[in-house]
User: Fold these one by one.
Assistant:
Number 1:
Amino acid sequence: MPLSPKYPKQIITIADHLRKRRLDLKLSQIAVSRLIGVTEDTITYWENGRTVPLISAIPAVITFLGYNPYDVDTSTLGGKVKQFRLMKGLSLKNFAKLLHVDPSTVKTWEENEFTPESANYKRLMDCLELMNYSV
């Protein structure tokens, strides 16, 4: 049976990942929207590249796909922090609030511009451990 003309030729964007998985599973957009917990329009917008998933929806997207489509280098502390945020669906602001730091501070850690100083590093490690995520 030939592939649907809507089947992505290359898997580059989150839209490609979502459309490919949906078509592979032979699901409608409404079925996927129910699985992920968003509206059918949201799935349509994601698949057409009009919008991208909000951070809060990323854990459900990863569960639906069965893998993490976001390219994160987890060999660095910054990459591990970013991966953790994605897997938990936490914005910079919400994660920073948990750590009692400014969101821009978390961003510099994720971009490996700075390493947390000892007190912040301990809070970061405690938070990751508390949420069952090892770095």
Number 2:
Amino acid sequence: MSDTIAFRDVAIIGGGCYGTFYASQLAAARGRGKLLVRSLLVVDRDPGCRASREVEPDPTMTIVAADWGAFLDEFLENPAPLPGQPDDAIVPSPLMPHLMAAWLLRVARTRWPDRAAAVVSAEQPVGTPYDVLAPDGTRYISFADWLCPTHCVEPHLCPVIRGPRTWEMSDALEEYAARLRRAHPTAGPALFVTRHRAFGVGMFDVAEARAARELLEREGERETDFLVGTVSSCHGAVTRFRLGR
């Protein structure tokens, strides 16, 4: 089973249409020996969400009735696995708010309760074809100025332009952070990079959350901005928050 991938726990954000699809795909991958996992956790405020009704019963799947932020605060405190052991992963929803930026901001406020920590609108565009600033200060960005196929796995050959995919959002945000640093001290980007791992389901490793926390601890002793991105190769959300004196 050389093409089998292994995780400890996989948290699927949302139990609606997307979460139901992701849970079904991962359960199928597990059933066919392509995925080893201790548990699949579908996180939704509604215990009777669509996934609870439509996903075929699977011994590893649990519906977790919880607020997403509260769940992540607890889930991301799980200790790191031993060397060589599978780690946890998170399957984001394309319709969720920027949960990882909100989580890191809560970590900063807990770590330095006497200092100001708040989102600062990322007024400067990233420069991708789709680049929109939301009212909460998050920029939603994409290299696609077309309608992408549902559940596209972002292959090297883009199925829309029928040519090589020459872009990578992680690189774009590294360049964006460098531009922001010219105006104000900016740490990061702390990136949560979704890759398609099994049966068309994208996820990012919880190790990236540990790396983001370490970046915060290392850079947060001074007044600085933090740039946080949850991205795939083509799309993403990017938030900037400022940790004051």
